[in-house]
Write a structure and sequence with these properties.
The complex is a heterotrimer. By secondary structure, chain A is mainly β. Chain A has strands spanning 2-7, 12-15, 31-32, 37-43, 46-51, 56-61, 68-69, 74-80. Classes of the chains: A mainly beta, B alpha+beta, C alpha+beta.
Chain lengths: 82, 330, 330
């Protein structure tokens, strides 16, 4: 078991939901696999998916919903169960 | 002679009072590459556009080195210049010289094409845009009645119903004073004041408007050249006025159909299905836009016309004002 | 030919000064957001400074060369590698058929990097320019950003690529970009609608002293700044509309600070050309490049007031800096 972080390649605003009224893409404790969308980065009026790169459990988010993030900043911690 | 006034902040570079029937002019600083030339007062006066376009034409014909291009609008011209080639003061002197030598206003005859555009009222594209607005943005907007803005437009202008509103749109030619905001978007004003409808803007602004939609805000009519956000009340649809792929002979010279100084005339009235076929034909290259390329506009004759219809125009204005006072604003 | 393996986040073909002469039809000039880095990149490879190259925003681009050419990268650090070897910014390199140039994501301050290739990118000019104008979907390659599979034709270099390679911009001319959460000083003149007739002197004093946060929803069209409760020098916009920020539509200078209600928006090189809101300041032409390196959502701006004469001085100074005679052999 090892812990990984998911990072954003882009600067911008981090969103945990696809729209303000919708449910979050994932909750802390959810199982994820490579390609699972965990959030969006909004910049320049466009939105980009942040996806998982490993199989495991999303342990916790490291940034709040609608917080500004930097390129390369860790967004969430994943515990892999391989 | 010149009454040059420089404010402490340097915003107004020069100003000249009304002379010999020519409206006052103010030259405003607009950075190191632009100069804003503004005429008369901030009131809606369509006749100002004829002077502006007359002067704009003279400026382009006598273009000095360093003058790059101009943006004429209803009562102003924004000049783009190269500050390495011409000073702003020489540019002001040049524009003043052109303004002084403009022929008397009443004698102006300006080139003005007549562009006929088919129109479908209360069409499916407009209804779709309004439906989305109701669903995603504002359900209780007073300017939306039974899924349209047309009933509200009739109420706001003291007209019997939407059919009478549509007949007003078709009854006047529309003077295209300027193009801008988006590529090819016309800012057109009614030439016949007896049919000059007015409308308030959306609140909040609509997120989505399909290309080809016709709308009005204040006295101004716009056609949306590309899919975009928008704030005008919308009620009709027409054929494309912008085609970046230049698929029709009308777009061979430029992807923009219209020019400043064009007159728009909405005819014939068509159904959604007929318009859809016309739009398809535009892209096939087979649709023939009806444009009178050689038409001119006689300002003197128009001023006489305005005098003749003044009582009727005033009666409509009063009727509008009374109606608008009874109708909620968005 | 240049082969695109990955278009990255937003990569477009641009030339400088973009599409000139179309403002009155509603076309913004487009071109590089950071023309300082763009022009230097071209000079490094022996091109005229305005030659078409790539604007790479936030990284992710991967390209393969099929010809021998000189190339240069100027702008933000995106960890670029040529065949796996780190590439320095602000210097020229020789590339050979089969060489792969890859960009990672932003490694520090700055937001855009420019790739110049000797001979330039030879897509057909549209309305006099190869610049991509996204709002009008024209120019560059099919009016859009680049994507995997695109193949871009290259022009013939005028200078032997081997001779153009191995040159650098002297360190004194390489700008240092303020970091995340840091303040950019941006030279600007007062605009056409400032104090005393539209805003109060206090409004303008606030404008030139506040540290304005750049909103994440900022792009080549407009840079959105913080909402502010302005005092305003008038009650309403009169004929222009109800709000004191409204005016009768006029042309907008490129780089104007457009105050829409409470929100100032810097109109960038893809921005609207005409509209009905005041412009209280205009960014100096020689400072526009800074906008290209600010990071949406992170950068702050303090507008530094300059006079018209000072702004013109900056243009002339910049022309002398961006010159082949200033390059060094590395």
């Amino acid at each position: 078991m090892a812990e990984h972080t998911i990072t954003s390649p882009l600067p911008g605003i981090f969103y945990r939901r696809p729209s303000p009224e919708a449910d979050p893409f994932v909750q802390e404790g959810d199982k994820i696999t490579p390609g699972t969308v965990i959030g969006l980065v909004g910049v320049m009026k466009t939105f980009h998916h942040i996806t998982a790169n490993v199989t495991g459990t999303l342990v916790r988010f490291l940034v709040e919903n609608e917080e500004a993030i930097r390129p390369g900043q860790p967004i969430a911690v994943v515990r892999d169960e391989a | 002679m010149s009454e040059q006034v420089t404010q402490p902040s340097g915003v107004i570079l020069a100003s000249f009072p009304e002379r010999n029937g020519r409206p006052s002019v103010v030259y405003r600083n607009a950075g190191d590459s632009f100069l804003l030339v503004e005429f008369g007062e901030m009131v809606f006066d369509l006749t100002m556009s004829f002077r502006v376009l007359g002067l704009d034409d003279a400026i382009k014909r006598h273009r000095p080195a360093g003058l790059i291009e101009t943006i004429p609008a209803l009562r102003s011209i924004l000049i783009n210049y190269d500050c390495r080639q011409i000073t702003v003061h020489d540019l002001i002197d040049f524009v003043e010289d052109q303004y002084e030598h403009l022929p008397p206003f009443e004698n102006l005859v300006v080139p003005s094409r007549i562009v006929e555009l088919p129109i479908a009222f209360d069409d499916k594209w407009t209804r779709e845009a309004i439906a989305r607005y109701v669903q995603y943005q504002r359900a209780d907007a007073p300017n939306i009645i039974e899924g349209t803005n047309s009933k509200y437009a009739a109420l706001y202008n003291g007209l019997r119903d939407e059919e009478e509103f549509f007949s007003y749109i078709m009854a006047t030619d529309w003077w295209n004073a300027a193009l801008g905001f988006f590529p090819g978007l016309p800012f057109a004003y009614p030439l016949d004041p007896r049919f000059a409808v007015v409308l308030p803007k959306y609140n909040p602004t609509r997120h989505w408007t399909p290309a080809g939609t016709i709308g009005i805000a204040g006295p101004c009519l716009a056609i949306y050249p590309v899919e975009s956000a928008g704030g005008y009340q919308i009620f009709a649809h027409t054929v494309p006025i912008y085609d970046p792929q230049q698929r029709n002979p009308a777009f061979r010279q430029s992807p923009v159909l219209l020019r400043p100084g064009d007159r728009l005339r909405f005819r014939p009235r068509v159904t959604d299905e007929e318009l859809e076929a016309m739009i398809q034909a535009v892209y096939d290259g087979t649709y023939q836009y009806v444009i009178d390329e050689t038409a001119t506009f006689d300002v003197g004759a128009y001023l006489h016309f305005l005098q003749d219809v003044a009582p009727e125009a005033e009666a409509f204005r009063q009727r509008q004002a009374e109606a608008a006072a009874r109708v909620p604003v968005p | 030919m240049l082969e695109v393996r990955n278009g990255g986040f937003e990569t477009t073909i641009q030339d400088y000064p973009g599409r000139i002469g179309m403002l009155s039809l509603g076309f913004a000039p487009a071109g590089p957001m950071d023309d300082y880095a763009f022009r230097f990149a071209n000079i490094l490879v022996g091109n005229p400074p305005g030659t078409a190259g790539l604007e790479i925003t936030a990284g992710g681009l991967v390209v393969v060369f099929h010809d021998e050419r000189a190339i240069a990268l100027c702008g933000a650090d995106m960890g670029a590698r040529l065949n796996g070897q780190a590439v320095e910014l602000w210097r020229s390199y020789l590339v050979r058929p089969g060489d792969v140039l890859e960009f990672d994501y932003l490694q520090g301050p700055g937001f855009r990097t420019y790739l110049a290739i000797s001979g330039g990118i030879d897509v057909p000019p549209v309305l006099g320019s190869r610049a991509t104008y996204l709002p009008g979907a024209i120019g560059g390659l099919e009016g859009r950003k680049l994507q995997a599979g695109d193949r871009l034709p290259l022009g013939e270099p005028t200078l032997d690529p081997a001779a153009a390679a191995g040159r650098r911009v002297p360190a004194s001319f390489v700008p240092t970009y303020p970091g995340y959460n840091e303040v950019w000083e941006l030279e600007a003149t007062r605009g056409p609608q400032a104090d005393p007739d539209y805003m109060t002197a206090e409004d303008m004093a606030f404008f030139f002293s506040h540290h304005w946060k750049l909103d994440a929803a900022s792009n080549r069209t407009g840079y959105r700044l913080d909402i502010h409760k302005w005092q305003w020098a008038r009650e309403s916009g009169g004929a222009g509309g109800g709000h004191p920020s409204n005016i009768l539509d006029n042309g907008y200078p490129v780089g104007a600070v457009n105050v829409c209600g409470d929100q100032p928006i810097i109109l960038c090189i893809d921005g609207p050309t005409l509209g009905g809101f005041i412009c209280n300041a205009v960014v100096a032409k020689a400072a526009l490049w800074k906008l290209g390196q600010m990071v949406p959502g992170w950068s702050y701006i303090r507008f530094k007031e300059v006079t018209l004469e000072e702004a013109i001085g900056l243009v002339k100074q910049q022309e002398e800096i961006i010159h082949e005679s200033n390059l060094e052999r590395s």
